[in-house]
Amino acid sequence: MRSETADVVIVGSRCAGAAAAIEFARRGRRVIVLDSARFPSDTLSTHLLWPTGVAELRALGALPRVLEIGAPQLNTALAGGSGYTVRTPFAAVYDIDYALCVRRIGLDAALVATARARGADVREGMLVTELVFEAGRVAGVRYRDRTGATAEVLAPLVVGADGRRSTVARLVGADIPYRSAASGRACYFGYWADAEQAWRSTAAQWRTGELLGTAFPCDDGLVLCLIQPPVERADRSPRAAARLYREFIAEMPELAARLRDCTPVGRVRTAVGLTSYFRRSSGPGWALPGDAGHFKDPVTAQGIRDALRYGRLLAAAAAPVLDNPDRLDRALRDWEYRREHDCLPMYQWTNRLARGEAMTPLEAELYRTAANDPDLAARVLEVMTRVRSPERMLPPGLSATLAVRAAWHGRGEPITVADTLFREVRATASERYERWTARRHGLPPLSPSPPGNAGAPE
């Protein structure tokens, strides 16, 4: 068997893997990246990047290549629901005042090209099948190349950036989440040739009843339209996807008007049965950035930003200590702990929006107020862009004011409104307790994973 060594081997070269590879290489480490795909290659994704995500591309040095793809800069965010429309510009974050919606076939290729330009050895069409263990530590990987031959790479650190169905997570015994929440929504999305030039700088989302729909202009003159119905209304059959997609759009007047003169392009894609989660993401000689370790429902469009950011921060933490196993393990634990506490509030906020329900009276009051209050509209958007945590979205006292207004406007249905408000209070208390518990007790222990655990991927 052909064997070689590196400072780090990364399994997967999309957002998290490429970000880690770029940063490791920038810090002078020899990086080998193995990916079963061949680029350019598409993947299932809704691919919106808020300004903080665009800033991550710039931090990695990938932004010039991504901008060459031609996606329009989205300077305005729009949210509609309950008869109200909230429109606000993106505030600058690290001097970035726009969002981007770049199709993954171009985005991932740009990231891979940036990693190679930095000096990372990215190898396509390579399928990782086993991990190498030494004295209880992960010490490398074995893989099959394009000819079917087996080879191995030995390294002090294996980074599993191989997505929700991560082979690395399974082989280290970390594939079962310690925190998870099933989504109440399914995803139907497709592309349209965009005939609405006036909308090409606006990222829009509407809610109608239990449906949530978006229109994000992207590269090649297209607009991405995502519909998230309750899972009860979803159909896993590929034959039903296009029909249901068009029916859902027809139920949303504002979204249907946005797409009226647009032409569908390509097939409708679906995702049903999504679960948000945290997995243990570090151990002796291994780490799991991106969806391999943490995943959120796409309703808040946070996945790419988090993959880029925590792939980059993983490399920044690990690169200086790769030659010292004890210091490396501490750095990996600190990185994982930081990611959990940075991401937990948005994880909880996302789970609320993913419940697959109509807007609550409290949400309706928030839209009503924000539609006429630019400062409040900006604060709400700052939650989505990760500038402001969800618990700091509303100014002091406004939560109580909105609750009173919701009760007043819903006085014809006092029991329903009271029940909804009580549930929101209970959910908020539960989320605070979850964050308190996470801070107090830290990360859960690793599941036992005996040295030598290996096998072919599922």
UniProtKB/TrEMBL annotation:
One protein family per Pfam: FAD_binding_3
Ranges where the record places region Disordered: 436-458
Stretches assigned to the FAD-binding domain: 6-317
MF-aspect GO terms: FAD binding
Protein name: Oxidoreductase
Source organism (scientific name): Nocardia aurantiaca
